[in-house]
């Protein structure tokens, strides 16, 4: 193999793959993005790159940011290659690679978030976007309200000028903008949350109200928080993905692999301008809820249907789960009988058509999306993705048999062992609590549903409790394979 070409502005014209044709030295910032992971670079950053390739949005370049110590590793990697990223699109029978360059800087990571606050207070920044995971918004899973008792939030209330959280930094920056007479920025959540803009607004306004009610009112009245629906599978990168980039002749310390499918539906509510992302394939819509409801329930909840069973059976990837007939049948039956009835169509497709699309996407063996990654943070994902479907099914008097099995499999997974006896390492911020409760539930299944932090009042819903107890007892006595077989045979 010829010598690898390192990514940098100086080597762009030497690259053997598609790369920025715009002059990156002339880009100026308009967006701060907090949480520069694989998904952000394969999704939001890609849309902006396509605009820049077309000669648009050169004043909307991204400044990357993070609020945790581990973000410094990504910062170091990206700054060493001028914030360029190789994206490798993987389909079943083809591969397409390109280098994108809409990010021009990455802020220093400091505990008090001084550099982040200063950047967001700059009037040139008109959008602050984020991907901090659906569990990162300090929302009580049961009430869906802002939770002010987290130690990081307590700190931000006590030291508002030196916050630990992204939201505390946003409040501090908005305070500086208001004092200077500057227009506020738009807060744009790009996480998988129902009403993600509404959730972001609730967190920011609630936090501001604890220290400065007048500022909270100003944010409430003048800052935009559009809802959006985001979709693209971008799995974690390991040695195989790095080697794939090397085979292309490129040296990239932080490449991203992703599927071909992308979707971004955004509420057109920006208080200080925005790029024309629709020119690159995004959709601006006043009906984001219908799109996000379809995606969150069928894809994100669907992931939870698959992942816990796969973890218990020691299956490494989502594609391998879909190749297991019992899991694939379980997935299909629940989608059609218990999830799809709660999903309204969108202009482009029906719920069943969307199911067929995600079945194909999940089954792509070249997308190495690990079962463990998908099963991570089940406490947020089950309460946010699966349980709203349960409540809707109960309200309409429809079946919850399969969904009860989904929850029973999660409880069984939280015991921390697979069916072959191997250990499942902690995989949730509440792992110790979940593990202890899972052990109690082996003899008294209702103990699992009595976790009101996650389940609210579901333990009072007799129909669901009976189904759940049946499956917990069945799994304890006969195992996961037998439970999946029983579900599909009866």
TrEMBL record:
Record domain Mannitol dehydrogenase N-terminal: where: 30-278
Domain Mannitol dehydrogenase C-terminal intervals: 287-469
Pfam families named in the record: Mannitol_dh, Mannitol_dh_C
Xref: InterPro entries: 6-PGluconate_DH-like_C_sf, 6PGD_dom2, Mannitol_DH, Mannitol_DH/Oxidoreductase, Mannitol_DH_C, Mannitol_DH_N, NAD(P)-bd_dom_sf
Record EC number: 1.1.1.67
Stored Gene3D superfamilies: N-(1-d-carboxylethyl)-l-norvaline Dehydrogenase, domain 2, NAD(P)-binding Rossmann-like Domain
Gene Ontology molecular function, alphabetical: mannitol 2-dehydrogenase activity
Keywords assigned by UniProt, alphabetized: Oxidoreductase
PANTHER family xrefs: MANNITOL DEHYDROGENASE 2-RELATED, MANNITOL DEHYDROGENASE DSF1-RELATED
Name this polypeptide is given: Mannitol 2-dehydrogenase
Species in which this protein is naturally found: Ruegeria meonggei
